[in-house]
Design a protein that fits this description.
The protein is α/β, with parallel strands linked by helices and 326 residues long. The chain folds into three domains: 106 residues, D-Maltodextrin-Binding Protein, domain 2 (3-Layer(aba) Sandwich); 80 residues, Periplasmic binding protein-like II (D-Maltodextrin-Binding Protein, domain 2, 3-Layer(aba) Sandwich); 122 residues, ACT domain (Alpha-Beta Plaits, 2-Layer Sandwich). Helices cover 29% and strands 27% of the residues. Helix 7 packs antiparallel against helix 8. The radius of gyration is 25 Å and the shape is elongated. The chain binds 3-phenylpyruvic acid. 3-phenylpyruvic acid binds next to helix 1, strand 3, helix 4 and helix 5.
Length: 326
């Protein structure tokens, strides 16, 4: 019997950068691929079992964290990141054939795309109004509808290439030519990706309240164990003003002793800390591990303490302090 195909969902429709990220997953080409109209519905499909995993954007090199994703994976039924993908981003401006750049008043795209093309738009179409779309591809395909209320869209070159009804007015309009977006594949908890030696661990740590220095203590859990952080962002929990959680990416896998020890420290400081997964880094870069933070150093240290406890008889209270009688 053939092995059953995986079902993946992604921020769609076809032609989004998120779909390009999904296509980096080795079995994606042969999988069932279901577009979702936003990050929340994509993650809900994973939670209710209608998809095995969802590809969603999490961070980009120009705009920073994708807050819709950071918030959606931090709360609700637990999820796990099982993989990351990096996609270089280049944008084109599209319109219906016959429309030229001087006729454009309103432009639709995803908020992160708009933020990355703002300087180009100000310089080339000053005063253009932004019309938000659920994704770059959704904005572009909207131009093909009869009742469309905007004149142009910003999207990936592939959307324009595949739609004869769209005409490219300008290419490479991103303000930062080297822009890269990071996407994550999210599934239900269950199977932890194996340690590769070049891994990342993502956690969500609610900041304990009324505790001076709590953020410093959180950071110290990583610093004292030689664990490097590659992203840290604060997000409001939404409960009330001033209540925040930190979303953190750390180098290493929960199966690395130094990372496991740091997570245990986080749990002591903030018991509602959420583990969001350990997974291989897209760039396969291994961290430099200092000898005193290696697995072997942690094993030897624990063995030393265990030996002390095994060799001594534990006394009780004052009796243990009483001077031995001859
Ligand atoms: O809308 C898309 O195409 C997406 O995948 C989200 C996005 C938007 C802008 C930059 C990177 C990802």
């Amino acid at each position: 019997m053939p092995a059953s195909r995986a079902t993946y969902t992604f921020l769609g429709p076809e032609g989004t950068f998120t779909e390009a990220a999904l296509m980096q997953v080795p079995d994606a080409a042969g999988a069932v691929r279901i577009p979702s109209s936003n990050v929340n519905t994509a993650l809900d499909k994973v939670r209710d079992g209608s998809a095995d995993a969802a590809m969603v954007p999490i961070e980009n090199s120009v705009e920073g964290g994708v807050t819709a994703t950071l918030d959606a994976i931090a709360t609700g039924q637990e999820l796990r990141i099982i993989r990351e993908a990096l996609v270089p981003i280049s944008f084109v401006l599209v319109a219906r054939p016959g429309v030229d750049i001087t006729q454009i008043r309103r432009i639709s795209t995803h908020g992160h795309a708009w933020a990355q093309c703002r300087l180009w738009v100000d310089a080339n179409i000053p005063g253009a109004e932004y019309i938000p779309a659920s994704s770059t591809a959704a904005g572009a395909l909207g131009l093909l509808e009869d009742d469309t209320h905007y004149d142009a869209a910003i999207c990936a070159p592939i959307v324009a290439a595949e739609q004869p009804g769209l005409h490219v007015l300008a290419e490479n309009i991103g303000d930062n030519p080297g822009a890269v977006t990071r996407f994550v594949l999210v599934s239900r908890p269950g199977v932890l990706p194996a340690r590769t030696g070049a891994d990342k661990t993502t956690v969500v740590v609610p900041l304990p309240e009324d505790r001076p220095g709590a953020l410093m203590e959180i950071l110290d859990q990583f610093a004292t164990r030689g664990v490097n952080l590659s992203r840290i962002e604060s997000r409001p929990t939404g409960q009330y003003l001033g209540h925040y959680f930190f979303s953190i990416d750390a180098d290493g896998h929960v199966a690395d002793a130094r990372v496991a020890d740091a997570l245990a420290g986080l749990h002591r400081i903030s018991p509602a800390t959420r583990f969001l997964g350990s997974y291989g880094r897209a760039d396969a870069q291994s961290p430099v591990v200092a000898p005193h933070t290696s697995d072997e150093a942690f094993r030897a240290a624990h063995a030393w303490v265990d030996e002390i406890l095994a060799a001594e008889t534990l006394g009780s209270g004052m009796a243990a302090n009483a001077s031995p009688t001859a």
